[in-house]
Amino acid sequence: MANINHPLTELYLRNHDLLQGKDVVFAGDIDSMQVLHLAKGCKSAVFIIDNYAIACQCAAALGKTLNHEINQSVTVGFISVIFAPLTLAAEKITKFSCLTLFLSKAKQKSAEILRSLAPKLEQESLILIAGSNDGGGKSADGLLKECGEPYKVDTARKCTLFAVKPASPFSPLKACPDICYENLQLKQKYGVFSQGRVDEGTSLLLKNLPQNLNGLKALDLGCGCGIIGLYLAKKGANVTFSDISAEALFLAELNAKENDLKESCEFKASFMLDDAPGFDVIATNPPFHEGIKKAEKVTLEMIKEAPNHLNKGGALYLVGNSFLNYGPTLEEAFEKVTVIESNKRFSVFKASN
């Protein structure tokens, strides 16, 4: 077997007897293609993956490719990889006997996954949930108590694994409340940025975007719920919404429909600027998906590439925490860099050539 250095995959492999011979659905915060090793010995293995980059890697390992659509799947033999929002992914699932969950950073997201997929479980089934101890893994059994009597299976690599044999259904999860920004009505979902509010950085960015964008091409990079792109569309732009998350793209598209802006919007699964054509405006509040150091590295690489994705006269509008040192990299990549507005927490940059 190839060298495994993914803690949660290692933990599940230590207890792989629980998966043997079963129809297993893997879901949650799957952030490594090494999870495919868990398919060995399963009767069938379905991986629901929200992260486009990881889904592409898993598909490639099976000899398949994914396009940039929000809802798609590939199957090779007894293994399937689904890149789709939870609602659409659940529609692709038939009865199965074991739900294997990777704890999400937002526990309410894990609760939503349980409620969406548990009804598809056969009788005498099993639910497993594992997470890093510093990410809530030690208390993940709390998510399972409503449906049965969870028990600790194992701990390793600073992660904890719990299991439960479901005896009763989960109660409905309280919906995430909608928010409003100016004239935009925005539906929200657990785990999609920025849940339940317009965060301060995004608000500062929106205040400093151009007001007349009629006929221009704009990119909302890392769109989350879609607020930046919808604001640009309101100002007349034709907007591409790009995100690594199927859930985010699905929500952004829903919000475009809710605000009657769908005609000027398109939605594209992508990792940063991969396969992004020329734009007049790129607007982004770079996300911190994997911690500050990793997110900053990814953002700096994006800044270096951004000039290649802008039309003549186009500009990058970027907001970031003031302690992040984006300025020097922007000045290396662009001829003109301006700090439009800043406060103690955030700075908004405009960069152009």
UniProtKB/TrEMBL annotation:
Domain of life: Bacteria
Domain Methyltransferase small: 184-350
Swiss-Prot/TrEMBL keywords: Cytoplasm, Methyltransferase, rRNA processing, S-adenosyl-L-methionine, Transferase
Signal peptide region: none
Gene3D superfamilies hit by this protein: Vaccinia Virus protein VP39
MF terms in GO: nucleic acid binding; rRNA (guanine-N2-)-methyltransferase activity
Domain Methyltransferase small N-terminal, first and last residues per copy: 10-167
Pfam families: MTS, MTS_N
PANTHER family: RIBOSOMAL RNA SMALL SUBUNIT METHYLTRANSFERASE C
Name of the protein: Methyltransferase small domain protein
